[in-house]
Amino acid sequence: GKLLLRAQPLAFASSHECRASVTQQLDHSFSLETTFDNKMDTVLSPQEQKTTLRFRSKMNEHTFIEDISVYNSVDRIGMELSGTILTNIFNTDSTDNQEFTISGFLKYDKITNIHIIQFPLIESLPLFLENIKVFVVSIVESFQNFINNEEVRAKLELLPQHMTEFVAQLNIESKAMQLKQYLCDFTQEYVFSVEDVEATLSNLRLTFEKLLADLTTYI
Q1: What pLDDT does residue 51 have?
Q2: Disulfide-capable partner of 105 in 80, 84, 149, 159 (CB 3.0 to 4.6 Å)?
Q3: Average pLDDT across the chain, whole number
């Protein structure tokens, strides 16, 4: 991280940067690398107050960028937002990343007393929707081809039979009968009556009273 400060009698500026990265080695030699890069700039003066934030995160080859700007000057006041995604998930033709951006702003012109609102605006909406459609269709077709595979279909048809054989191997009914017989044998071998319980409680009471008497004597 890095923090820079600059101060003057009627002005103040700061810049804060923070970077972090994490690398995870998963099974089958697959690695996952994640990077975070955040920055915030602030300017304060009688003529202008402005704060700009940028959040950038990257996971392997996929990147997400978010920009936020809030400002107040002599002429106008407003806020601007934008988000950008760089990814090849929806690109079925090649491995190159595609860019998708959504942005918007809210501005107020103090001189002309005009409000301007634009939120949200997807700059590549038709392409984005078309890529989602192609992606979903390709997933459905791949799943159908997988199901229609003769070997997979044969395994699915044998699945009920395998489940029946598995349940039969567990022999649940026999194990339940064994447990019932064990409980019956246990209760017959170790019989507890009400008199036994009362005698045990009486012995515990006498032992506790003796312990209290001994403690009183020592005190």
Answers
A1: 94
A2: 80
A3: 79
Cα–Cα distance, 203 to 3 (Å, whole number): 74
Q: Which residues pair with 70 in a beta bridge?
A: 51, 79
The Cα–Cα gap between 71 and 4 comes to: 20
What is the model's pLDDT at position 54? 93
Residue with tokens 């409000």: 115
Omega into 46 within 30° of 0, i.e. cis? no
DSSP β-bridge partners for residue 106: 79, 117
d(CA 193, CA 191): 7
Q: How distant is the alpha carbon of residue 83 from its chain centre?
A: 20
The region that residue 4 occupies, defined by phi over 0 for left and psi between -120 and 50 for alpha, beta otherwise, is beta
Q: What percentage of residues in the chain have a pLDDT greater than 70?
A: 79
Specify which residues 24 forms β-bridges with.
32
d(CA 8, CA 10): 6
Segment 50-72 shows an average pLDDT of: 91
- What dihedral angle (degrees, nearest 10) is formed by the CA atoms of 174, 177, 181, 183? 120
Q: What CA–CA distances, in Å, run from 59 to 25, 48, 124?
A: 13, 36, 22
Sign of CA dihedral 140, 144, 147, 150: negative
- Answer whether 76's CB lies under 8 Å from 107's CB: yes
* pTM greater than the 0.85 cutoff: no
